Amino acid sequence: MALWIAALLGVVQGIFMFLPVSSTAHMVLLEHWLIGQSYAVPAPDSAQMILFNLVVHLGTLVSIGLVFAPQLLRFSRYALRDGYAWARAGGRQGPPLYARLFLLGMLSVLCTGVVGLSLKATLEQAFAAPSVVAIALIATGILLFWTDKLPPRRRTLRSTGAGTATVIGVAQGLALTPGLSRSAMTIVFGLFAGLKRRWAAEYSFFLAIPTICAASLLQAVEVYQLGGLGGVSYAALATGFVTAALVGVVSLRLVVYCLYRAQLKAFAFYVWALAAAILAGVIELPA
Fold first, then answer.
1. Crossing angle (nearest 10°) for helices 97-118 and 197-225
2. How does pLDDT run across 173-215, given as a tens digit for each residue?
């Protein structure tokens, strides 16, 4: 893979990672197009290319760290404090707030892992099927449009329980399907569970950190077992990672602005238009 292609894919990932329009769908569509133009790019459903996609996802985690640095530092500090105090007390009572939120986050990651590993083979086949991507984009648009119609949510993180964490974790697992936006699925189902928009957003973005790290590690092991990176060099991985991190900061600030003001339906029209273009053959991709 040429470095300019890695940089281009990193830009696309950085732009669309946090916009609720499925960065994976855009990556897969671009990869299909590049292959159709005879550029040296591994197949979108190959283990090497899935790993590259995860690495550029890791790059956008840097964006989360930069934009939400104060909140992440505060959460980490308080979670360690609460966890230590709870452990010293022998865990006889329920965990304090930040320790409980950490455990709920791990429950969400566990649910994502169960769904993702159970459907792994099926979901990976979707990377090679543009029509599946189009249908998933339509579903994403419906969810986004519906979300802006919801009345004000009342639940805060303090009143969040295992049920909400499970729902969000399952939604994130289903979002491994290209075309179903991870940020859209987790935010939307957080809102459906009653979370205020701010808390649904922060829970979604913070949840991305352990989820993407774990998925990247598992995929790296699979690539190693299959014999290596093939046509994807370490330089290409680094280029995609850095580019996605830098571009992702702007994208994340934009989606937070829109979410807080209930303006996500604009993205619904975009994903519907993209899905229509794929199904109508305006965007022609190899099967």
1. 50
2. 988 887 888 888 898 898 888 888 888 888 888 888 888 888 7
DSSP 232-250: --HHHHHHHHHHHHHHHHH
Q: Are 207 and 38 in contact (CB under 8 A)?
A: no
Structure tokens at 29: 């569509």
Q: Are 135 and 79 in contact (CB under 8 A)?
A: no
Nearest to 255 by CA among 13, 12, 15, 19: 19
| CA neighbours closer than 13 Å in the CB half-sphere of residue 233 | 11
d(CA 111, CA 162): 11
Sign of CA dihedral 78, 80, 82, 85: negative
In sequence order, what DSSP letters do the residues of 68-119 get, joined into one string? THHHHHHHHHHHHHHHHHHHHTTT-SPPPHHHHHHHHHHHHHHHHHHHHHHT
22 vs 37: CA distance, rounded Å: 23
Q: How far apart are CA 21 and CA 211, in angstroms?
A: 19
Whole-angstrom distance, CA of residue 261 vs CA of residue 147: 12
If you ran DSSP here, which 8-state letter would residue 157 be given?
Answer: G
Q: What is the pLDDT of residues 148-179, one digit of tens each?
A: 777 878 887 788 889 999 999 999 898 888 78
In this structure, what token pair is assigned to residue 39?
């550029």
CA dist 110 and 119 (Å) reads 14
How far, in Å, CA of 248 to CA of 244, rounded?
6
